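ok trying this again, last paste got cut off
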Amino acid sequence: MQIGIVGAPNQGKSTFFNAATLAGAETADYPFTTVKSNQGVGHVRVECVCKEFGVQCNPRHGWCADGKRFVPVTLLDVAGLVPDAHTGRGLGNQFLNDLSQAAALIHVVDASGKTNESGEKVEGYDPSNAIRFLEREVDLWYAGILEKNWDKFSRRVKMEKGDLSEQISRQFAGLGVNQLQVIEAMEAYDFPEDPTAWSKEQLIEFATRLREIAKRMLIVANKIDVEGAWENYKRMVKEFPQYIIIPASSEIELALRRASKSGLLEYTPGDPEFTVSSTSSLNEKQRRGIELMQEFLKKYKTTGVQEALDKAVFDLLGYIAVFPGGVGRLMDSEGRVLPDVFLLPPNSTVLDFAYTIHSDFGNNFITAIDVRTKMKLGKDHKLRNRDVIELVSGK
């Protein structure tokens, strides 16, 4: 799974990316710090089943901290998007191409209103405009793809009485759009049955709806501790009820993770507090930094970075976490206990799970067992979050 970190230049995207991955992407106080996309691994937080089963898990990927399992996902920090990027302005073509396979977008916005949509330092900018501008750029990108061969294939669909949704889904196949999403977008409005009669405005309207379905987006109201940011955040929540909007400070999260990595403190991403390892070895600057981080968490409860990742995967996309296991045996052949957990899209079945683990499990599927209840499950049984499933397959 790939999550795109998007936004205008100089909003704090790369700081968010670094905080989520500790990957070391370049950050600076000027536009277009990110010229080429940065790819790294972030983690979403899942309530592990290890405590429930009274065992200590040994994750193959990610880690587990006091029953909180951190499962890897791919994050992509792309070049900042500027107005008219869909026409190729700035690094627009690179930005949009980088996002083609992203399952969801996390849009980082400078909630303080001190950076405009071009990445320039200003005072009193309305960050809601940054949301509107990014929506429009991606909408026009989608519309441009649709318009590219519209005349040709719309006439063919009309003449051959073909399936318009199938033709459109082929146009967008490179963006991970499927035919069901196209059908859902078509059903949202009363478009003419004759595709050759669609106006330019209707193509853009359709592109907008398709983008809303296929490229779901979550908003991070970054720099929330800067003066004026909280008021802007509350206004954004009112103006954009269709979005999950999370107040955040990427800088605080980055400082916490770096301090934790260096051993100055113990911090589990997403927790409302941390523990200082030893105050005696701290210098005055470090003491003051820790005080500021404590004050921030006391006020806001979390930095918002981990919350954004979790909500993007589990709330926005509706994914579930499923653990492979065995009845009476939760370890693999190498002795690792509950080594894996898989993230699956909503409505995934037991057979989907089998194929996710390995094609051999899917091809030779016999049955599955719910490790908790010991009940046998058919291939079409729909899975739930935190299920522990044993697969039984033939040779």
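PB: full thing came through this time. The two ends are 30 Å apart (CA to CA).
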